[in-house]
Design goal:
Helix 3 packs parallel to helix 7. The chain starts with a strand and ends with a helix. The protein contains eleven helices and eleven strands.
């Protein structure tokens, strides 16, 4: 994305934001509440239209497309708070993830892959999604996203509301998904965890990118250590 500005009505949230993700990378976007992280993901997924700038995906401009068309390009967002269908079973939620034609063709084999990544989901596949624990619901949200056959998976605050041990285990899975070739854009408040997982990061404050670079470099930045790590 190049020089993207976006917001809600007359309220501008993002100010000339640019970022780049290479195929197979995991990149984190870090910042406090209200910094513009979720607005960034909504803009990338077509829910919000940028007021300026351009977004390209595999050299194709996509900021003029509708959200469902962007999903068909392989851009899949896992929203903050999981947003699963609580009155449907785990299996039904996963099957909904494969609603586009290309994903529907490969539904059975994709289910096998998702259950291999999240064995707990296979154990509970006939259980109502609303009865799952918070960690299991986050697994389901990610699994449903994977069923869409994404080329990039955008995760919005996956650690939100989860116990520390569950978060650690979840991020190990996210890291493994990336190591198997999935491109991931990770939006996360837990800066240390995000930078320990991703290869590169961007720090956003008040809708502007103020720092970017390799994760190890960002962890050593004085501003990051003081403002976000309390060091």
């Amino acid at each position: 994305m190049k020089q993207i500005s976006a917001g809600y009505g007359d309220i501008q949230i993002l100010h000339t934001v640019s970022l780049k993700i290479e195929r197979g990378e995991m990149v984190s976007v870090l910042g406090a509440n209200g910094a513009g992280k979720t607005t960034l993901l909504l803009t990338l997924s077509g829910v919000l239209r940028p007021t300026a700038g351009e977004i390209y995906f595999f050299n194709k401009r996509v900021d003029c497309l509708e959200p469902h068309q962007i999903v068909k390009q392989g851009v899949v967002r896992i929203p903050e708070g999981r947003k699963i269908f609580q009155e449907m079973t785990v299996l039904e939620n996963l099957e909904l993830g494969s609603y586009i034609r290309t994903a529907k063709i490969h539904r059975k084999e994709n289910l096998v892959k998702v259950f291999a990544i999240f064995p707990r989901l296979e154990e509970r596949k006939h259980q109502l999604a609303g009865t799952l624990s918070g960690g299991e619901q986050q697994m389901l949200a990610i699994g449903r996203g994977l069923m869409t056959l994404p080329r990039i998976l955008m995760l919005d605050e996956p650690s939100l509301g989860l116990a520390p041990l569950i978060v650690t285990n979840l991020f190990e899975v996210i890291k493994r998904i990336n190591q198997e070739g999935m491109t991931i854009l990770l939006v996360e408040q837990n800066m240390h965890l995000a930078l320990s997982t991703a290869q590169r990061g961007y720090v956003i404050e008040n809708g502007r990118i103020i720092l970017e670079g390799e994760s190890e470099k960002l962890l050593g930045e004085d501003h990051v250590r003081k403002a976000y790590l309390g060091i």
